Known about the structure:
The protein is α+β, with helices and mostly antiparallel strands and 145 residues long. It has helices at 14-21, 110-119, 121-144, and strands spanning 4-10, 34-38, 49-54, 59-68, 72-79, 84-94, 100-109.
Amino acid sequence: MAPIRVSARVAATPSTIWEACFAHMKWERWDPDLAEVKDVSSGCEDGCKCVFAMKDGNNIPIELSNVKKNESLDFSGGGLGGLLRAEGKVRISPIDDANSSIDYSFEMKGIIGSIFGFIKKKECVEGTEGGLANMVKLSEAAQKN
């Protein structure tokens, strides 16, 4: 499955986006497919390990990397001996004093992940787009407060 890439302009600063969406590891607030992020080993930092408890009942072990506060993070994980992998990347960039951009990508990898991504492409696209839309809403609401 090719990466799904979405971007948005946000009426919020990078630090507001970070605090609203990532710092507290409550990603279920913005990811429409997540029921809960559980078993979190640390804060939002390189090497943090957690489990994405999906709304469909699956649990996916995840590790964070390339974490730069207010700028970027990557998450990756999967199961079945690497046959199913999920990878996401978030990039936050300031546009001016009051606006930023969020670039978000998501990809399913591995033999089973590629097949799943192909069969469930619509759901993967909708989940990625919905996640970004929720990041924007949370960040803009936080910026107003």
